[in-house]
Amino acid sequence: WQTENGVLLPSLQSALPFLDLHGTPRLEFHQSVFDELREKLLERVSAIALEGKVEERYKKLEDLLEKSFSLVKMPSIQPVVMCVMKHLPKVPEKKLKLVMADKDLYKACAVEVKRQIWQDNQALFGDEVSPLLKQYILEKENILFSNDISVLHNFFSPSPKTRRQGEVVQKLTQMIGKNVKLYDMVLQFLRTLFLRTRNVHYCTLRAELLMSLHDLEISEICTVDPCHKFTWCLDACIREKFVDNKRARELQGFLDGVKKGQEQVLGDLSMILCDPFAINTLALSTIRHLQDLVGQDTLPRESPDLLLLLRMLSLGQGAWDMIDSQVFKEPKMEAELITKFLPMLMSFVVDDHTFNVDQKLPSEEKGPIPYPSTIPEAFTKFLQENRIACEIGLYYILHITKQRNKNAFLRLLPALVETFSDLAFSDIFLHLLTGNLTLLGDEFALEEFCTSLFDGFFLTVCSRKENVHRHVLRLLLHLHHKVAPAKLESLQKALEPTKQSGEAVKELYNQLTEKLELRKPSPAEVTETPSMELPLPTVPTPASR
Question: Which residue ranges are recorded for the region named Disordered (predicted)?
Fold first, then answer.
């Protein structure tokens, strides 16, 4: 039996006794021969997949699959069967069903085979993608609530290319491969989740995924996605954090080029413009344009570049409504935004310039001119009722905070208590604001500044908005040593978590309490200090003797 079933090589028979002398079992020898042959076979299968005419090579692989598939559950043969299936562009339906029905086989098969299963099985693909999407959202939220507060390294610091190297984007890119059907499914998942949750991070993933496929030059998908060139151009603007004139023209060309009957593409374009990274770039560019216009004595309505930025902001901010209503047309821009609100913002810039010049002039008898403290009622009304005005207004406040302009910040802060759908209490704005406030660190020692910022703004909603509670605690963890002790004590009381507070708030509060305990002088030090103030013993002077 051994002779019949062994390796039939005449020269081998005389060599085998040597192995016996070394105490090597025949099983070990046969196993190593088997492993070697399997490696050779795997190499051959990969080579067949690349040689000869297409029909012939796939015919060979199909025959091989037919012969070997019955042994697919044998661990030693399984890699060969899986390799054959991996190289077949279309595995027979019957075999795919058998793989899908067996959990272990499904787990073991290559992503190339899984793609063939997924494209006709949306529910199964959804189960695979869902944990990745959850992980992606969690990662974004962790960055927004990170304890590292810095004006230099914030949510928007990583470049688009760096972001696309993230684990989730890479995994999704690999799962999709060149399969347009799977790409469409992922986009459908993202649209549905965006509609269900209003979470704008899904819009970021939509753009990142397309650009990741673009990086890999997967033309099969890039050429059929109508947003590809628009996203590519916008991606370059996001990298520079500014929309220059040349790219503005290109972007306008894409928007103007949406033909009748193809309006549905506006839904996708609006989702790409709703990406916080796109909104950030458009808003920063808008603020920069407004400052330039002040210097040029030009009104907003006379700047086509500014009007285009507003048009894109409007399209991005209207993404949810457009996808929800399925009415694909650009939102109408309110004339008052351009004729009243933006000139009002420009007047704030002028107020700053005037005040700075006044400070430098030699003071006369009339004394120094105070900084304007009131804000026009219309400004507050715009922030409450107009989404685009609110977004631009918030970015202007971030801009003045970054410039360490305390006067302008305190003047406009009261307008933030009530904003359009509470945008001033959104995580992205608060993440950026807390970062910029670190530049005004020394102001936290002043009662007036702290009262305006904490009592007048943050604490007005802390009890009902847990995210605001978290951001205030993050800020205090970073700047507690700058705040006056009495104010810090009252803030500590005001920010104490309730029973309903989440774990994150309790954890942050405990961290803050620990830091404050460490700063308190120890009792030993306190008792020792009076001894320094004992009256010095009187030493009689020579004269008084």
Answer: 519-545
The predicted model scores a pTM of: 0.87
Structure tokens belonging to residue 146: 């990170």
CB-side neighbour CA atoms (13 Å) of 190: 29
**How far is the C-alpha of 291 from the C-alpha of 287, rounded, in Å?**
6
- Contact assessment for residue 77 and residue 71, using Cβ atoms and an 8 Å cutoff: yes
- What 3-state class would DSSP assign to 309? helix
Report the alpha-carbon distance of residue 14 to residue 482 in Å, rounded: 88
pLDDT in tens, the chain (545 residues): 777 777 777 777 767 777 778 887 877 877 788 788 778 877 887 787 777 676 777 788 888 788 888 878 888 888 888 888 888 888 888 888 888 888 888 898 899 999 999 999 999 999 999 999 999 999 999 999 999 998 889 999 999 999 999 999 999 999 999 999 999 999 999 999 999 999 999 999 999 999 999 999 999 999 999 999 999 999 999 999 999 999 999 999 999 998 888 889 999 999 999 999 999 999 999 999 999 999 999 999 999 999 999 999 999 999 999 999 999 999 998 999 999 999 999 999 999 998 888 888 776 655 677 888 899 999 999 999 999 999 999 999 999 999 999 999 999 999 999 999 999 999 999 999 999 999 999 999 999 999 999 999 999 999 899 999 999 999 999 999 999 999 999 999 999 999 899 999 999 999 999 999 887 765 544 444 444 444 445 555 554 43
Q: How far apart are CA 485 and CA 477, in angstroms?
A: 14
Domain coordinates in residue numbering, the chain: 10-120
- Which residues are CB-neighbours of 486 under 8 A, at least 6 positions away? none
CA distance 358 to 369: 7
